[in-house]
From TrEMBL:
This is Helix-turn-helix transcriptional regulator. Coiled coil: none annotated. Keywords: DNA-binding, Transcription, Transcription regulation. SUPFAM superfamilies: Homeodomain-like (SSF46689). Pfam families: HTH_18. It comes from Rhodocytophaga rosea. PANTHER family: ARAC-FAMILY TRANSCRIPTIONAL REGULATOR (PTHR43280), HTH-TYPE TRANSCRIPTIONAL ACTIVATOR RHAS (PTHR43280:SF28). One of its GO terms (molecular function) is DNA-binding transcription factor activity. Residues 91-170 form the HTH araC/xylS-type domain.
Length: 181
């Protein structure tokens, strides 16, 4: 799950299937008790119908937690004291794991590095802000914690093949939904 709407959909599905739960948050479902195999299959089918999947092995859960943390960091939606922490420290402290282990695991499962995933997420947020047209490029760079407009522009061009200004001209047809990244 990557957004609040996903949480609402999952809560709705759990209620329809009469599966008692404590809470649903981005990337996690906290159940009162383990699911029966039939419940798990029904839940999996319903989730797949809306483009989500049930992840119940510990390795994939860890990767999903890391992705959720990286997404929050990329979108600058973390507490002020964590905004300027090195990414490796931020993830290690939040997941209680050695960063080298986490990085190796992430790369083997995702087929890309944590840093590349972070860049992709930051660029997607920049694209979203460009499409809205409410902020200047320098305001977007500042909001996404880039060191300069040039740094943002360089990463944007490298990732999308377009300059931010050209992207802004062609608009929303290049914007990806978060669950497709």
């Amino acid at each position: 799950m990557v957004c609040d709407r996903c949480v609402l959909y999952v809560e709705s599905i759990l209620k329809q299937l009469s599966i008692p739960f404590q809470k649903v948050q981005v990337g996690e479902i906290h159940l009162h008790e383990d699911l029966l195999e039939t419940q798990k299959q029904l839940l999996q089918q319903r989730l797949q119908a809306i483009g989500l999947e049930l992840i119940d092995n510990r390795l994939n859960q860890l990767i999903e937690k890391a992705k959720t943390l990286i997404l929050a960091r990329a979108r600058n939606e973390v507490p002020e004291q964590e905004k300027h922490q090195k990414l490796s420290v931020y993830l290690s402290e939040r997941l209680h794991l050695d960063y080298f282990y986490l990085s190796t695991l992430f790369s083997s499962v995702e087929g890309r590095t944590i840093e590349n995933y972070l860049i992709e997420q930051r660029i997607e947020k920049a694209k979203e802000l460009l499409v809205y047209g409410e902020l200047s490029l320098s305001e977007i760079a500042y909001q996404l914690d880039y060191s300069s407009v040039a740094h943002l522009s360089g990463q944007f061009k490298k990732t999308t093949g377009l300059t931010p200004s050209h992207f802004k001209q062609i608009g929303t047809n290049k914007l990806k939904s978060l669950d497709k990244i």
